[in-house]
């Protein structure tokens, strides 16, 4: 059956639910829709959290996760996959199983290992399983500097750590520098087997909750629409920076990206090669 004209590219999102709307499935859906896609949202975990920090995480049942993903994807076939928080081994294995059904599709992984407020969201056993089972299936992974260090603890530099993830099977690594604290520019670097590309963006003041989810989902939306990796990375960064620039602070903690305002303000300065 031919795809109707005007049908948005579909992204299947497997991630945690954040009731603040700053991160998790709500952030994913907003970013994907703002950039012209359509998100199928299947929760991997439910969280108790505020704009300050995560208080509790409850993994969703692996069987329900798999059933929900299969059912909705049969109705609305995805063009890309995006994975976020995985809170236990059972849900990780469920995601690996689902990935095997759509090996031809781009898979963007946002390795959510720790909440912005500092709460630990992973374990060494889960990290090891992630490296062995899911990382080799990723088209692109989007760690920040702290996540990159935890995923490749034996390497001493950003480049060496990214190379270690490529050697482990990841198709590409977009290492983000938003959790750095030095300099007036934030540097993001795309590592691929064929070389690297860097972008610089003006550092924004304050602390933000949901920047990583926004970036990874925006990237998945671009890949679902057929953009090559590098242009999809650049558009995702521009969109995310604009969403952070217009961030709101409805709570008492971190600011939350305004992805609808970001959609209408993509006149981001910078984005030149570092």
TrEMBL record:
Keywords of the record: Kinase, Transferase
Top-level lineage group: Bacteria
Region (Disordered): 252-274
Keyword Protein transport in annotation: no
GO cellular component: cytosol
Matches recorded under Gene3D superfamilies: 3.40.1190.20
Keyword Transferase: yes
One Pfam family from the record: Phos_pyr_kin
GO biological process, one term: thiamine biosynthetic process
GO molecular function, one term: hydroxymethylpyrimidine kinase activity
Domain Pyridoxamine kinase/Phosphomethylpyrimidine kinase: 18-254
PANTHER family xrefs: HYDROXYMETHYLPYRIMIDINE_PHOSPHOMETHYLPYRIMIDINE KINASE THI20-RELATED, PHOSPHOMETHYLPYRIMIDINE KINASE
Full protein name: Hydroxymethylpyrimidine/phosphomethylpyrimidine kinase
Taxonomic lineage: Bacteria, Pseudomonadati, Pseudomonadota, Gammaproteobacteria, Oceanospirillales
